[in-house]
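The protein record quoted in full:
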Amino acid sequence: MASVFTHDRSRSDDEDDPVDQMISRTGCAELHYAVQECMAEHQDWRACQNQVKTFKDCMLNFQNARKQQLLKNPPTSKSEQS
C-alpha cells in the first residue's frame, strides 16, 4: 500500500528538488529514504528512531568533515583575488 510519505525516487521532479540535491551531496540519501519509508510504514516517528539516529549520525559526520575541509582550505573572496 503506497503512502503520501513514501519517496518516489523514480520521479524526474526529484532532480529539481533542492532538498534532495542537498541530501544527495552528503552521501546520506539512502538513510534519508529509509527514514521516509519507515515513517510511511509505521505512521509514527517513535517507531523509526533507529533510522533517524543513523541518518542524523551520517549528517553530523558529513558536517564535521565539511567543517574540517573549510578550515584547511577556506574559500577565497573576490576582493582577495584582485
Summary: The chain is about 60% helix and 0% strand. Confidence is low (pLDDT under 50) at residues 1-5.
